[in-house]
Amino acid sequence: MSLFDSVWEIFTYDLGIDLGTANTMVYLRGEGIVVSEPSVVAIDKRSKLVLAVGQQAREMIGRTPANIVAVRPLKDGVISDFDTTQAMIHHFINSAHKNYVKGFKIPKPRVVVGVPSSVTEVERQAVIDAAKTAGARDVFIVEESMAAAIGVGLPIEEASGSMIVDIGGGTTGIAVLSLGDIVVDNTVRIAGDEMNQDVVNYVRDKYNILIGERTAEDVKIEIGSASPMKEEKEITLQGRDLLTGLPKSIKFSSTEVREAIMVSLGQITEAVKDAIEDTPPELLKDIYNDGIHVAGGGALIKGLDEFWMEELNIPVKIVDDPLSAVARGTASMLDHIDLLEKVQKSWEELI
């Protein structure tokens, strides 16, 4: 490392970013998680100005006047609205990175961004362009499954098999890793968002009531589960009666939420089974011994480990702090820039 690079690192705080469909987390090197907010942007349609980003913008969903729209600029883990994503990344980088110290501008940070392994070259380049336009000096793209595995401390560089399932908002990354690489990858674009929509559909079909996706997500988090609970719960759910057009309240149980989300959860389970079937026998033996590690927001669904242990006949472990696994992994990779450059070059050659 040159003297210039050494001095640069003293004044630069590099960032690891989990750019998620539902939430974005930013890990500041040397500090830890400094940003954890919904991936939502509120925009004035007339002036095209960004009015709010993150939690403040999420609170506007479904409550804005006609000229203001609250949008999620990522769909299925990839950029669907470049300009809005750029504005969101810019906001999060500025929130995480102090621009000035004693009157001197801090050099632009290096940024590692976790993306689903299913992204195309165009989608991957869109992430790089958005991050650079938002103020990054160098941008490295890593697969979320790899980042999550590193973030939770799996021995991925050893000659043994490790399995990670990362259930995000737009995608579920399912991977078996060994010797520092992904041996089996079965990423599917079914995750938390689809479960929210399952709840919306269930309430509409059974009760003729329309609720918003934000309400559905809140219900899923509060009383959702994958396995029967020792004490089932019930909440009051409010929505619009599709027959009368008027507000209506119903009692909605955790049993019903479980029945609703099982539509998408069943598809994810089948994808995990497919990955297991594709795993070489020697690595599968390691997974049987060490278990499947589950990360991401979906890992917080109550009883998911019990449900999968029964379905898959393999030990299942919900990792510590599953929400930050990818962000922690991207930050860890900042300590191995040479390796990152090598991995990125290899990825570019494969595409």
TrEMBL record:
Q: What is its main location?
A: cytoplasm
Please list the GO terms describing molecular function: ATP binding
Q: Name the keywords, alphabetized.
A: ATP-binding, Cell shape, Cytoplasm, Nucleotide-binding
GO CC annotations, alphabetized = cytoplasm
Which Gene3D superfamilies does the entry link to?
3.30.420.40
Transmembrane residue ranges? none
User: Which residues of the sequence carry a binding annotation for ATP?
Assistant: 21-23, 169-171, 217-220, 297-300
Task: Check the record and name the InterPro entries matching this protein.
Answer: ATPase_NBD, MreB, MreB_MamK-like
One Pfam match, by short name? MreB_Mbl
Which GO BP terms sit in this record?
A: cell morphogenesis; regulation of cell shape
Where does it live in the cell? Cytoplasm
Q: Which CDD domains match?
A: ASKHA_NBD_MreB-like (cd10225)
Quaternary structure annotation from Swiss-Prot or TrEMBL? Forms polymers.
| HAMAP family assigned | MreB
As for what it does, the entry says: Forms membrane-associated dynamic filaments that are essential for cell shape determination. Acts by regulating cell wall synthesis and cell elongation, and thus cell shape. A feedback loop between cell geometry and MreB localization may maintain elongated cell shape by targeting cell wall growth to regions of negative cell wall curvature.
* Protein family (similarity comment): Belongs to the FtsA/MreB family.
What's this protein's name?
Answer: Cell shape-determining protein MreB
